[in-house]
Design brief:
This protein has 9 helices and 10 strands. It is α/β, with parallel strands linked by helices and 300 residues long. The protein folds into 2 domains: 169 residues, Rossmann fold (3-Layer(aba) Sandwich), CATH 3.40.50; 110 residues, 2-Layer Sandwich (GMP Synthetase, Chain A, domain 3), CATH 3.30.300.20. Helix 6 packs across helix 8.
Length: 300
């Protein structure tokens, strides 16, 4: 019998390069919010892949960006701390890049400083020609000695096995850190909050969703009249301004209903139970600079 391998793998990259999409594809479950907007991931979300001879624990870190608030600083701190603590790093870049941008340069500098085993993943290869891809590989390979370079499209599952095999090759022998049945260390409350936030990121204007955070006030499992399991979930959506509150609620409450409906459908699929979801919207000005709230996102 082969020896068992295990390790922690940090997924790093600039904001909006597809880290959460990659994580969900590798795990085979939807645990991270996916939206085509920057700063979708605020905390380091762990996803677990159990294989015959290995356990790979992925950490999806917040995107590298220029911090403007205490929340941004906490997110950046989370990213670099998780890079430092990882056994292996997946550095995700976009195939459409013409040069090494400021954010990617910052990551390269950290990798050189920490000397971590790193696999370069080039996402969105379906958007470029082969010549451009080869130029990009050459450009990055001159900057750092990567263990491997894997061009992919994170929305396509066919790349999953190739990435997992390459990761496995670069892990040390070690024990399983989590039970075989587990695929995330996120609690159901955190998953519910992430699901609501993801729907808001998809449905609302650029400015509004990044000024919100969600708190699950109540989450209780009960039996309905048909003796089926049902979760009663009550969530408060906090935003920065009254004008944002109006946008989130929408005309005659239509937007909030849409957010709630889409979140409920996703939760029912992910939790495997019926969901009774109630949402409220409240204004909490400048919460992104309040330590008591920002600490909630420092799960490092």
């Amino acid at each position: 019998m082969e020896k068992f391998k295990s390790g922690f793998v940090a997924i790093v990259g600039r904001t909006n390069v597809g880290k959460s999409t990659l994580l969900n594809m590798l795990i085979g479950e939807k645990i991270a919010a996916i939206a085509n907007k920057v700063q979708t991931t605020r905390t380091a979300i762990k996803g677990i892949v159990n294989r015959e001879n290995s356990q790979i624990i992925f950490i999806d870190t917040p995107g590298i960006h220029k911090p403007k608030t205490k929340l941004n600083e906490a997110m950046l701190e989370t990213s670099f701390t998780n890079m430092n603590d990882a056994d292996l790093v997946l550095f995700l870049i976009e195939a459409t890049s013409d040069n090494i941008g400021r954010g990617d340069q910052k990551i390269l500098e950290k990798l050189k400083e920490m000397q971590i085993n790193t696999i370069l993943i080039i996402n969105k290869i379906d958007l470029v020609k082969k010549e451009k891809l080869l130029q990009l590989i050459d450009m990055y390979s001159k900057q750092y000695n990567f263990k491997a370079v894997i061009p992919i499209s994170a929305t396509k599952e066919k790349y999953r096995e190739e990435i997992l095999k390459e990761i496995e090759k670069n892990l040390q022998y070690g024990p399983a850190y989590y039970d075989k049945e587990e695929y995330t260390d996120q609690t159901l409350r955190q998953l519910a909050e992430e699901t609501i936030r993801e729907k808001m990121l998809k449905l609302l204007d650029q400015e509004v969703p990044h000024g919100i955070y969600i708190e699950i006030e109540k989450m209780k499992l009960r039996k309905n009249k048909q003796k089926e399991d049902i979760y009663d979930i009550e969530a408060t959506i906090y935003c920065l301004k009254n004008s944002h509150k109006g946008i989130i609620i929408g005309k005659n409450g239509e937007m909030l209903k849409r957010i709630g409906k889409l979140a409920r459908i996703d939760m029912e699929k992910n939790f495997g139970t019926k969901i009774n979801l109630k949402t409220w919207v409240k204004v909490k000005e400048d919460w992104q600079n309040k330590e008591s709230i920002v600490n909630k996102f420092k799960n490092i």
